[in-house]
Amino acid sequence: MSTMTPREIVSELDKFIIGQKDAKRMVAVAMRNRWRRQQIDPALRDEIAPKNILMIGPTGVGKTEIARRLAKLSNSPFYKVEATKFTEVGYVGRDVESMVRDLMEIGINLVRQEEIDRVKVKAEKQAEERLLDLLLPGGIPSTPQRPQGSPLGTALVTPPPPSFEVEEANQTEASDDKLSTRDKLRKLWREGKLDDKQVDIEVAAPSPQVEIMAMPGMEDIGSQFKDMMGKMFPQKKKMRRMRVKDAYDVLLQEESERLVDMDKVTDLARERVEQTGMIFIDEIDKICGKNSGGSGVDVSREGVQRDLLPIVEGCVVNTKYGMIKTDHILFLAAGAFHLSKPSDLVPELQGRFPLRVELSPLTRDDFFRILTEPRNALSLQYPALLATEGVTLSFKEEALEEVAAFAQRINEETENIGARRLYTIMEKILIDLSFNAPDRSGETIVIDRDFVMQQLEDVSEDRDLSRYIL
Q: How far apart are CA 1 and CA 25, in angstroms?
């Protein structure tokens, strides 16, 4: 678990997300409280529930990015899902419990990769030995002698059976010769001189995929049945000829999986999911609709809210890895709430998201900072992409200021999609350059204000066109 202080967490978030100070501070405190909870007496620890957060703001202002970066900082299992994907249990569609099962799968993969990294050195050593066995098939022969002056790849010749003393000496000589050959091959392999050689290796044959049609709300049973079928019919093996380098990768994967204890992985993953897991529920405002005419229930709205309530407040979900408690999973919900408001959620669900923060719309200055400050800024991504074609691309500050101003103007005149507008505008500006980049290798191109205005001239003059293009 991350031991970063709230101030350090906000500082790390600032490297990728511009603005939204209040939201960053709130999630930083929520993350720090998880660490604090682990330090107190176990008797009180289980009584402290996470303070779930509801983020309110238009699209493209950083709600999802804040949650994703937060999970990455804490190395926590993280799953993002749209609330509109779910329907009430018993109807066609996904039930809300599937988000916990998916989070557990992510936790398993996360811990499994950590265990693979932990045994990497040992797995590499064993994979190398198996590779050398493939390059020297048959093991150490009992009596063969290599003809004098023959090259390494020449077939071994078996002489008539000698006496016991001579046979023992020959075995010792053959063993030394074999060991020497193995060391030579090891040296050649480590120098990369055998990478393109061909070798025969036994690999797992692809098994036919069988789809299990499970009843709505019973998808997990179908998954468990497929796993059971896989255990009843072991995977078949087949011989394949491939490059030595590719064969080493296959052997390394096999050795890594053999060294990893999956029972331990499951136990660690279950604990991490239950104690530090994070689920981000996007578009929660889309399930706030009211019943039409006061009759019946909308299974994709109020029905989902009722099913979501026990998951958020804490229950036990059955997965193929065992029972998962959701009591201490941190839930972050987000929505624009243009056509509804948080009070339209059922009161019980409102109470399960006690912390609320409103993210402010992005301004022209925010757009400029987004283009220049983050480590993954667009003004860094495009030069890196075109550098692969031999084109040196750079942006003048005045050009990025014009892009920021144009993005703000388009967001005001059309639908406000936040920072995502920058992607559209930058692609529009650089589309011709990106298309012709392979033919302009070696050139240095500087993007200035005039270049930006020239590329955006047609859409800036025609408001109707800008609604479709940008």
A: 19
- Looking from the CA of 405 toward its CB, the CA atoms found within 13 Å total 11
Single-letter amino acid, residue 410? I
Instruction: List phi, psi (to 5°) of 394.
Output: -145, 155
**And the tokens for 165?**
């003393």
Nearest partner of 333 among 392, 278, 261, 280, judged by Cα: 280
Dump pLDDT digits (tens) for 361-388: 888 999 999 999 888 899 999 999 999 9
HEC assignment per residue over the chain: CCCCCHHHHHHHHHCCCCCCHHHHHHHHHHHHHHHHHHHCCHHHHCCCCCCCEEEECCCCCCHHHHHHHHHHHHCCCEEEEEHHHECCCCCCCECCCHHHHHHHHHHHHHHHHHHHHHCHHHHHHHHHHHHHHHHCCCCCCCCCECCCCCCCCCCCECCCCCCHHHHHHHHHHHHHHHHHHHHHHHHHHHCCCCCCCEEEEEEECCCCCCCCCCCCCCHHHHHHHHHHHHHHCCCCEEEEEEEHHHHHHHHHHHHHHHHCCHHHHHHHHHHHHHHHCEEEEECHHHHCCCCCCCCCCCCCCHHHHHHHHHHHHCCEEEECCEEEECCCCEEEEEECCCCCCHHHCCHHHHHCCCEEEECCCCCHHHHHHHHHCCCCCHHHHHHHHHHCCCCEEEECHHHHHHHHHHHHHHHHHCCCCCCHHHHHHHHHHHHHHHHHHHHHCCCEEEECHHHHHHHCHHHHHCHHHHHHHC
> Which residues have C-beta within 8 Å of that of residue 28, sequence separation ≥ 6?
6, 7, 9, 10, 13, 70
Residue range 246-257, pLDDT digits in tens = 888 989 998 999
DSSP β-ladder status, 322-325 and 316-319: antiparallel
Q: What pLDDT, on the 0 to 100 scale, is given for residue 465?
A: 61
Parallel, antiparallel or unpaired: strands 198-204 and 237-243? antiparallel
CA–chain centroid gap for 368, Å, is 28
The pLDDT value recorded for residue 469 is 62
Nearest residue to 333 (alpha-carbon basis) of 39, 38, 26, 106:
26
Please give the single-letter amino acid code of residue 209: Q
pLDDT at 304: 84
The CA-based dihedral angle spanning residues 361, 366, 368, 374, taken in that order and rounded to the nearest 10 degrees: -110
Q: What pairs with residue 331 in β-bridges?
A: 279
Give the model's pLDDT for residue 89. Answer: 65
Burial class (CB in 10 A: 0-12, 13-18, 19+), 83: buried
At 411, give phi and psi (nearest 5°). -65, -30
Q: Is the pTM of this model over 0.90?
A: no
